Amino acid sequence: MANHTFVTGQFVRIGQKLANASDRVWAALIDLLVMYGGFTMIMSIIGMLVASDTYSESYFNSGPDYTNTMIVIVLVVLGPLVLFYPLWMERFFSGRTVGKMALGLRVVGSDGSTPSFSSSFFRWLFSLVEVFTGFGLVVILFTKDNQRFGDIAGDTYVVKVRKPYYGRSLSLNDFPPDYKPVFPQVVRLSQAQVNLIYKVYYLRDRYSEQLRLDLCNRICRFLEINVSGMTPYQFLGQINYDFKYYTAVS
């Protein structure tokens, strides 16, 4: 299985295993089943509305007009929910759909973080052709990083997340020659504390942002530093990077 090293905006190296073609096919099949189930549910609801109107108009009191209104509501509310299923799942579940969760996969951006909306949109747009025709599998088999055209357009990768690893130790050659740590106070941190920072930094669930914020506040109090202009994700990444620098120097 191919590996890929992502470099964040803070030069933190993240090693990840790329998902192979087999994993992606199975994940896509599961997602197609979910979408098929969604469309089947919509058609069943419409069928029940039509049948109820045909055999028992008095049940709705308002006759065909009520039935037509309900059908429009079902199509407007549930239709986009099913059609855009991969897009909103990846946006609200940190790059994962039901199929990807089942196979232990996740979509990430070029820096290893959750993709932007535009990246997710390009993936969804191209999937309308690539996934439903099977052409995406052909592209995955012949690209270096197992990407389909939607991934290339959105600058995304699909990685394995069941057993993530956080990259190798760095030597001084991995740092710019004139690099100066942003937070020299990291020398007061223990390896166990940095390991915890690693875990929170790479979390990808609905509570990850709040956990990162809480951890940032604790670190700032412990190291007696003030931070501005950085997100919690960027701050933890910089702490990781600076700690690796001092580890390489020692």
What's the topology here?
Elements: E1 3-7, E2 13-17, H1 21-55, H2 64-83, H3 85-92, H4 98-103, E3 105-109, H5 117-133, H6 135-141, H7 149-154, E4 156-160, H8 191-201, H9 208-223, H10 232-249
Antiparallel strand pairs: 1-2, 3-4
Helix pairs in contact: 1-2, 3-5, 8-10, 9-10
Radius of gyration over alpha carbons?
24 Å
Major beta sheet summary? 2 strands, antiparallel
Question: How many β-strand runs?
Answer: 4
Arithmetic mean of pLDDT: 80
Tally the helices: 10
Distance between the termini: 34 Å
Order of helices and strands: EEHHHHEHHHEHHH
Please state the structural category: mainly alpha
Helix content estimate: 55-70%
What is the approximate shape?
elongated
| Strand residue content | 5-15%
Low-pLDDT windows of residues: 162-167
Strand order of the largest sheet: 1-2
Question: Could you explain the architecture of this structure?
Answer:
The protein is mainly α and 250 residues long. The protein is built from 10 helices and 4 strands, in the order ββααααβαααβααα. The protein has helices at residues 21-55, 64-83, 85-92, 98-103, 117-133, 135-141, 149-154, 191-201, 208-223, 232-249, and strands at 3-7, 13-17, 105-109, 156-160. The strands form 2 sheets. A two-stranded antiparallel ribbon has the order 1-2. A hairpin with a 5-residue loop joins strand 1 (3-7) and strand 2. The longest helix has 35 residues, at 21-55. The radius of gyration is 24 Å and the shape is elongated. The two termini are 34 Å apart.
